[in-house]
Amino acid sequence: MRDLPFIDAHVHLWDLKRIRYPWLMPPFSDDGPNGSVEPIAHTYLLPDYLADAEGWDVRGIVHVDAGAVPEAALDETDWLQDMANAKGMPNAIIAFAALDDPNVDTLLQAHAQRRNVRGIRHIVNWHPDPRRTYTPRDVTRDDAWQQGFALLAKHGLSFDLQAYPGQFAALARLIERHPGIPVILNHCGMMVPSDPQGRREWRAGMTALAACPSVSVKISGIGFAYRPWDIEQARGYVRDTIDIFGTHRAMFASDVPTDKLFGSFDRHLQTYRTIVSDMTTEEQRALFADNANRVYRLGIAL
Fold first, then answer.
1. Mind giving me the DSSP string for 20-62?
2. Chain-centre distance of CA 243, in angstroms?
């Protein structure tokens, strides 16, 4: 939609012939947090993204680590930086680093030397249900992981947080101790509605994180909570997220191609646009572009 600029705060690109992504390799199964990823298990490059985003006034994109093998973390960053140098996108790179790795400081320093790197993501979703969890235990409780998190400030890096609501209260206490590290919560906080206290736990955890001024949130990944989803489910989830964080600390993102498992680029973005259509133009611009521009330090003239 050309009447609003859009900075896409969460995009993945991958070249499966160049870098190995174990989660995009067979055998594929429905028994996991994403369901089967077979429909997106093919190379997805910048022209593919731009084709999906046709009709939207995309001014910039934030690339978030795409689940490559850990030893390829710097290779992925260099591939993306070369792309940005040649094509002008991605405008920001959120790279991978395992924060509990004993040598993480060296990797953080290397990432930070690449011009478009703004932050780090280390997926830490832990859930007692083996079909939901991404990790065998909650590594965010480990001293080594917390020490790695603290190192982000040294290198001027933000952190993209992908975790489950049951982890948020403890994470909020950690984040409070490091107010100089910007934290961007992924995918509306990934509520698990099937949990006995699913929405209540999500709201309590989101409120705890929102109490930290350094935390903002990306609105994407509706399909992680509701699969399949409809606009009324999305409306409650999105508006509650915005209500908790405010229009100045929330931003829309496509999460393609992952969210294409749950619906097209247009379906997601048009749904978000409909949900906030009663807001002021200034608020909508903040959600679709201004906040991402500020939080990820893009410097794009809007």
1. --GGGSSSP-SSSTT---GGG-S-B-HHHHHHHTTTSEEEEEE
2. 19
- Cβ–Cβ under 8 Å, residues 93 and 84: yes
Residue identified by tokens 């992504």 is 21
- Token couple for 21: 């992504």
Distance CA(110)–CA(220), nearest Å, equals 29
Residues 219/224/228/229 CA torsion (nearest 10 deg)? -20
Looking at the DSSP bridge assignments, the partners of residue 160 are 121, 184
Cα separation, 43 vs 227, in Å, equals: 24
CA dist 31 → 16, 133, 230, 243 (Å) = 23, 11, 22, 33
Instruction: Provide the whole-model pTM.
Output: 0.98
- Reported as a single tens digit per residue, the pLDDT across 223-266 is 999 999 999 999 999 999 999 999 999 999 999 999 999 999 99
Return left, alpha or beta for 179; rule: phi > 0 is left, psi -120 to 50 is alpha, else beta.
alpha
2 has pLDDT over 80: no
| Closest to 293 (Cα-Cα) out of 246, 239, 251 | 251
- Give DSSP secondary structure letters for 192-256: -TTSTTHHHHHHHHHHHHHTSTTEEEEE--HHHHSSS--HHHHHHHHHHHHHHH-TTSEEE---B
